[in-house]
Predict the structure.
Amino acid sequence: QVQLVESGGGLVQPGGSLRLSCTASGTILDFALSGWYRQAPGKERELVARMTAVGITNYADSVKGRFTMSRENAKNTVGLQMNNLKPEDTAVYYCNVVTGGRNYWGKGTLVTVSS
């Protein structure tokens, strides 16, 4: 079985930056699909960023130009660089990886953007 663990969340002021990381345990030969999702209080979980096996990325309109997703296959790690953070970015952020024909989720890391 594969497990995902997110890290890097915390409290940051508006305009600040954070970098989230997601490390996968087990044997990951290929990231068929990887991504970051978030769920704000009282809202549905939404896609933040996604990357295909061939490196094609897409982002939610609300984060385009501010967030950048990365992947390091050799380290079984997925990253999310978040710049110019806004209060509306406050949410629990979840890592998602599809590999071996199965879908895996992390438990999430909380990001709070507030003065």
Notes: The CA atoms of residues 90 and 112 lie 5 Å apart. The mean pLDDT is 95. DSSP finds no helices and eleven strands in the chain.
